[in-house]
Design a protein that fits this description.
Strand content: 35-45%
Number of domains: 1
Shape: globular
Helix content: 10-25%
Distance between the termini: 69 Å
Number of strands: 11
Radius of gyration: 21 Å
Number of helices: 3
Largest sheet: 6 strands, mixed
Structural class: alpha+beta
Low-confidence stretches: 1-25
Length: 206
């Protein structure tokens, strides 16, 4: 009787652990690679940049993913040996019109659509003076990659009518497809991003 009771208790624990594991099971894991670059000349005309910064201050603060079933889970940073956009970075650097300031890659699961829950650029391995904000991956009917970034370069591109230290805001979200390069534009800086499944990733088509 005593042995049977112990076995039943162990079986109940195993079933409970299995159920808990299923409830906490993460969704698909994705690899995200991102190049942040600044422009050396104006890619647009002068604007009221202080008004842009004030209007977007709250949205750039964002929400970093934490616990809960609706937010993504950060898995790990990826080494440079796994980068697939190195050729693009080299072309940007040699163009003379753009200067790459960060190139990182990481793995994560997606947040639920509409949460805008992501990770700070610092958590993603970016340490660029004047650059802050979050990057978020959301899945609803489709997969979307978005970012709410704030960048205050010491020398804004000539022609933008911006004083040194002016803060520029990028607040964009786009539907993404695997292996396709995605461009996020701003007159002062930009981002090129690539999203692939963590399993079976392949180089993007030429």
């Amino acid at each position: 009787m005593r042995v049977s009771s112990v076995l039943l208790a162990l079986l109940a624990l195993c079933i409970g652990a299995s159920a808990s594991s299923q409830e906490a099971a993460p969704g698909p894991t994705y690899n995200i690679e991102m190049i942040v670059f600044r422009s050396t000349s104006a890619q647009g005309g002068a604007e009221n940049w202080s008004a842009e910064g004030a209007a977007s201050e709250d949205s750039v603060a964002g929400a970093e993913s934490g616990g809960g079933s609706s937010v993504g889970r950060f898995v790990n940073l990826l080494p440079a040996s796994q980068f697939q956009l190195s050729e693009i970075e080299n072309k940007l650097r040699s163009s003379g019109a753009y200067v790459p300031i960060a190139h990182v890659a990481w793995s994560q699961t997606a947040s639920a659509w509409g949460t805008r829950a992501g990770f700070t650029v610092q958590k993603l391995g970016i340490d660029v003076p004047g650059l802050s904000g979050t990057v978020f991956l959301e899945r609803g009917q489709f997969l979307h990659l978005g970012m709410a970034l704030s960048y205050a370069p010491p020398d804004p591109p000539a022609g933008l009518g911006a004083a040194p230290g002016t803060t520029f805001i990028m607040n964009q979200s786009r539907r993404v497809k695997f292996y396709e390069r995605n461009y996020y534009d701003h007159p002062a800086f930009g981002v090129i991003a690539l999203v692939t499944p963590a399993q079976g990733a392949r180089p993007p088509g030429r």
